[in-house]
# Entry
Amino acid sequence: MKKIISLILVMALALVVFSGCVSKAPPVEDTAGNSGDTAAPKYKMTFIVKSMAASFFLDVIEGAKAAAKDLNIELNCVGPETPFSVEEQIQIIEQSITDGVDGVIVIPADSEAITTAIEKCNDANIPVVTPNTKANGGDVVTWIGADNVEVGYTLGKIMCESINGKGNVVLLEGTPGNSTAEERTEGYKKAIDEYPDVVLLDSQPANFEREAGMTLMENFLQMYDNIDACGSGNKDMTMGAIEAAKNANRLEEIKFITFDTDEDVIAGIQSGEVFATGNQDPFSQGYLSVAAMFAHLGGCRLPSIMHLPMKVIDSTNIDDFVASQN
Amino acid sequence: MKKERRFNPSLPNSSYIFLIVFLFFGITVEKFWSPGNLSTLLLQASVLLTIAMGMAIVIMSGGVDLSVGGTISLSAVVAGTILKFGGHWILALLGAFATGIVIGFLNGIVIQKMKVVPFITTFGMANIAQSLANVISQKRTVYWDQLAQNEIIKTLSGNIFSKQLGSYDLAVDVISISYISLVSILVMIAINVAFKKTRLGVYVYAIGKDQESARLSGIKTDAWVTGVYMLSGFLASIAGVMLLIRTQSVQPTLGEGLEFYAVVSAVLGGNSLKGGKGSIGGAILGAFVLYTIRSALTLEGVSTFWVLVTIGSVLIVGMVINNLVDYFERKAQLRVKLQQVESGLAGGDK
# Structure
């Protein structure tokens, strides 16, 4: 008898676990518009980011949700369980096709691999918008983001100027195989080439991740006795690298140039640990890509590339930037 | 004595969990039965199904194979690199399979001949394989030019009938399945037949229960255990090729973490980590449980974090259910035995 009761209890527990998840998680209705005064959502879209564990993409999602609310769109924001897994992104896109969404917005974790999924959307006549990172194939309505070669170039110049055009530098590259990482690195290298006295000691990928950035920087610090500046494809890698430099007591000698702004970076610039960063406005990327999809579904024609401006932020204008964010 | 040889239970324990999960989501998630969802589910589960079967056999033989993820990465990188240098697709496939089998062979040799525990051996091998994959690919995604001779790699990423019929058609999509699913179904049949109809099954259970007595009763344990790891490596390389076909490129870390899901599927399927007990069918159902949850929660728009919470909870609750099922089975057996003893006593009393 006791066993039967415990069996029932287990079943009940299982049900609670399942139903708890389904109801507690942010429901889709969250973004379905202001209740009451609007009709049922006209369009249904899926917004897929590279990782739900990186603050940058959470900011993008915030923008996307704001647009969904303003435009009365049913928006489902998801990311792979394993951060930066393009295979899982493909799975989510397949699921969305099955689900019969009106549009798919995806930030590809790999520019090449995502094309098979985009082609599937093309076959099913579902339009695709790719903010932030480009896809190498398939028909995409539009791409919205910062000009990443330009981003790398601008940051690279700032890096070289920060050490007065003379010294040793290292680069932390983003995840290999996606356009944002490769284009930013290309830009950095282009800028370094313009300064004959700046030596690029090493450039390796750290996958846009904090932990990988820390490990890579630890290796660099072991290998090279003199590092004057460290450029990075995003801020997570830099924050990891700063930890590594702190542990090695070499924080003072290295100027960190990074990209993206969140509380970490702002605090870093205020304390002087980070020399400069660029802001590519994730909120706008999210908002505009949903709006662009909306416009496309409404019959508008869009340019295939939409560049958003980048703003450089350093100790001189950090206070203005913080003020403008609030 | 008959009861001891319980190597062919009629229903794997995980079938109960699968039924619960499937019914629950079938009722609550409205899009679950929508056209294409089930074939999409099969497609997405293909990779996990393939490695979960290998994992189940290894676990039944009393070991564990943590090198599956690394093997997937390395074999896919090998195949991708061969394609990149213009090699024929058959060569690429053979390269991938050879990689998987060699890794399995090394695992087996180290475990059997050098007496290193499987957990450590395969964990080390996972790192070796993953690092080699990183070295060969220089940590960059491997692409290749679309050569006419390798067109099949592109074709295989589609569905069986939709390519022939040309344009996309939902009805066609529903009845047809993808080539990748077909491969996984064929592998499933082959492995199950091999396990049930040849000595493989019996020997694996015997070795898993007690390797020394298995050896003393004339089983060539070294060869069989090595063979089991080679099989697991081979299945992992098939999974690597599936992922290569699916993404039409190779990310050097594409296998990372998959060994965890394979172990979870096998364990959910009632394969005891102590060895000597379990079934392949259970692991297959276990893999389906994971993907049913994922697919249903994604359709429902549940955030990623909750998906992981759910998978973790299902694993724990599933294990509890597995133990309960075991408990009831044992109790039923005991009751039968008790009755036999009682009737025996009654008989002896007269």
